[in-house]
Design brief:
mainly alpha; Gyrase A, domain 2; four-stranded antiparallel sheet; globular; transmembrane; protein-N(PI)-phosphohistidine-sugar phosphotransferase activity; protein-phosphocysteine-N-acetylmuramate phosphotransferase system transporter activity; Glu_permease_IIB; transport
Length: 501
């Protein structure tokens, strides 16, 4: 029955993105179905948003349909199968996709959100931000394994502390640690694949970093350690391998390519990795871990306020992707990233702001319905529907949501400053979904209580800031109405847009 539901969702999405022939590639991350399109104009955004299973859409380097954690992993293979079936059926040219299964109501805020997304996409098309997206594409496929292994590690810790099932502990430890011990290989593989090289050669060069035999090698007057440099070293080594391989493809005769190119790629990149990159990346990784711990230990409250308050704008600018390798490095070093619970407070501020909007606009049934449908996902850390459907188009509530995130971040950061350090054993989830991944040195009870307290502060401050300061009189006059939901607005440009201040 569940499979039928997922297939029905995929079948409803496919004609609304232009049909099988309009789909160039398909992938998914934690919450989004990511589609590369042949012709963007064939997509019916409003009809997609109207589908019950769709939480929102985001246009970036790919067209992204937000389905939520769990759902997206089940819908994607059904969508892929339908695309293949549709292509093999080879419909006659000129065949038009069928009509949308549901009537679509145009919504002013959704239009504004779409316009803001388009503007953000245009601003984000810079070489630096495109590079950050490619870095994110390396690590996003690893998130499911990080989450699974992180939860197993947490379960093993609980069982060990309680003294239950001691014979099972070594097995759970092996399951939790096996992936992390080889994560450099996966990073190298994905790096080469993302930057246009042979993926397995990137993995082969990165595997040098975790090979136990490197302990016999001396570089810069010091013996190397297996794993030194971690994911940063693996990323750099695989990137170097891509450039060496491409150079070889240009200059090595075709008759010798199959022998010479992979050999030179691994040899040259491997030597540079052993006698340079491992040491340099190891120093960089150590510096990142030391700085993060120092920052929260000495100025945790202020650091949490800044990080929690600025994370939503970072997401809007696409700069949050630069944090993914940092999170992974911290997890490698200490078993968890201290930054993610603080950054998760931005989502709490967003939820509080949305609830305030709900109560502040009792006559706007359309917007209240949007908030009611998006809040469950917001509590679980999926914030796109609330951001693009509510706070960002409204303007001021986006700012007050950031205030709530700053307050929650300061709360969590304060406890780090007081010596209660904790973090997440994986990256990806936030909100309530982060609870199973929490780990710290002060016990699970204390860790959960502090994180829950931070969420509560984020909710309350986000609500209060939005309720009392999130609207001008003009905004209330425009928005606190009960428009006929069956009659779409005819003027896409309202006379007065709500301002940020």
């Amino acid at each position: 029955m569940s499979t039928d539901k997922n297939r029905a969702t995929a079948a409803a999405i496919l004609p609304l993105v232009g049909g099988p022939d309009n789909v160039l590639s398909i992938a998914h991350c934690m919450t989004r179905l990511r589609i590369a399109l042949r012709d963007r104009t064939l997509v019916d955004d409003e009809a997609l948003k109207a589908l019950p299973a769709v939480l929102g859409v985001v246009e970036d380097d790919t067209y992204q349909i937000v389905l939520g954690p769990g759902t997206v992993a089940r819908v994607t293979p059904e969508f892929e199968a339908l695309v293949e079936e549709g292509r093999s059926a080879a419909p006659a040219p000129g065949t038009e996709p069928g009509p949308a299964p549901h009537p679509v109501t145009a919504d002013e805020l959704a239009d504004r959100g779409a316009a803001l997304k388009d503007a953000r996409k245009a601003r984000n098309a810079t070489p630096f931000k495109l590079f950050l997206r490619r870095i994110a594409n390396i690590f996003v496929p690893l998130i499911p394994a990080l989450i699974g292994c992180g939860i197993i590690a947490g379960l093993n810790g609980v069982l060990t502390n309680l003294g239950w099932l001691p014979g099972l502990s070594p097995a759970l430890a092996a399951m939790a640690s096996g992936f992390m011990s080889l994560i450099a290989v996966f990073v190298g593989y994905n790096t080469a694949k993302e930057f246009g090289g042979t993926a397995v050669l990137g993995g082969a060069v990165a595997a040098i970093i975790v090979f136990p035999g490197v302990a016999k090698i001396t570089a810069f007057g010091m013996e190397l350690k297996p794993g030194q440099g971690g994911v940063l070293g693996a990323l750099a080594a695989a990137l170097l391998a891509v450039y060496v391989e491409k150079w070889c493809r240009r200059w090595v005769p075709e008759a010798l390519d199959v022998l010479v190119t992979p050999t030179l790629t691994v040899l040259v990149s491997g030597l540079v990795t052993l006698f340079g990159l491992m040491f340099l990346a190891g120093e960089a990784s150590t510096a990142i871990g030391t700085f993060a711990n120092w920052l929260l230990a000495t100025g945790g409250a202020f650091a949490g306020l800044v990080l929690g308050g600025l994370f939503l704008p970072l997401v809007m600018l696409g700069l949050h992707q630069a944090l993914i390798p940092i999170h992974t490095t911290l997890i490698e070093q200490s078993g968890y990233t201290v930054l993610l619970p603080i950054l998760a407070m931005a989502g709490a501020g967003q939820v509080g702001a949305a609830i305030a909007v709900y109560y502040k606009l009792p006559r706007n049934g359309s917007l209240r319905a949007t908030i009611k449908s998006a809040l469950p996902a917001g509590f679980l850390g999926v914030g796109e529907p609330l951001i693009y459907g509510v706070s960002l188009p409204l303007g001021r509530p986006f700012v007050t949501a950031c205030v709530g995130g700053a307050a929650g971040g300061a709360f969590v950061g304060l406890f780090n400053q007081l010596g209660v350090a904790f973090g997440s054993t994986a990256i990806g989830p936030s909100g309530w979904a982060l609870f199973p991944l929490l780990n710290g040195e002060s016990g699970m009870g204390t860790t959960i209580a502090i994180y829950a307290g931070g969420l509560a502060v984020g909710y309350l401050v986000g609500f209060a800031a939005t309720y009392f300061f999130g609207f001008t009189r003009q905004m209330l006059a425009e928005l606190n109405t009960d428009p006929d939901p069956t009659t779409p607005p005819t003027d896409p440009e309202p006379a007065a847009q709500p301002a940020l201040a």
